[in-house]
Design a protein that fits this description.
The protein has six helices and seven strands. By secondary structure, it is an alpha+beta fold. The chain has one domain. Helix 2 packs across helix 4, helix 3 crosses helix 4 and helix 3 packs antiparallel against helix 5.
Amino acid sequence: MSKYIINSKNLSNGFEEEITKEQFEELAQSKEIFSEIFAKEKIYNIILMNYYEFEKELFEIILNNEVFNSDYPKFSEYFLKIEQRILNLLSSITLYLDSFKDDLKETKKYSTHLKDEFDGIVKFFNNELKNNKNLKIMKFVRNHIQHNGLLITNFSLNGVNLSDELREQTLKFEIDKNTIKAGWYKPENFTELDEKIDLKKNIRVYMDFMSRVHQKFREFTNQKTQSARNEYEKIFKKYPEHKYLYVAQKVDDEIIVEIPILLDWDNIRLEMVKQNKVPKGFKRHTINTK
């Protein structure tokens, strides 16, 4: 005989109560939605951390060059550091975008409860990539660096004295679109782009795009995320002395399925949402140490 329960395994105040099948399925669905939403927030947070490391690297290179004398070996070191940061950033962006695509044939890639929302997100960013070649080419840049290594050309560090007490330092690095080697890439498909592409500017534009994608993700999934949150809050309002609960399916007194229920876990997601606001204008980037 099958039955459904909610229980706590605390030694001091553990309990077990029977619940309906509908309650069990509602909480199981909420847990599945939370897991999916939280996973996307974590990947987006990784993207932001990689972007932060990229910008910090550029700032440190400029500062290092201003304070110390940079020779050819040092410039070679700069090349490697920049490309490492670019590869980390673009790889995490690829991971994020691909996570919305239902492209596994024999198993489900993500919760079926969010399929319509994720399909809408894929449609949104595919349309953006189709209509903006500055964004689309970044996929091929990542592919090239990952498989062929160095790509940056026209690397330069310059500065101009704005006054006796203020100097503006600039770092510039470009790629030649004709040297990109990646599957399905054809330079003639990007005729509207300059031969030399300002990679620093393109990355910041790409981050603007990612910010808009994540904004759509939160908009499309907000209703189901809030409904799942409400289900959790109702349970912990009923059992306020507990922080961690389980719901389970039992057959002949043997647990067949067991699902942990933890509201604090979703609070971490809410902190990420609060910290990582969207949309954000990364291309209006400014560092001022005046």
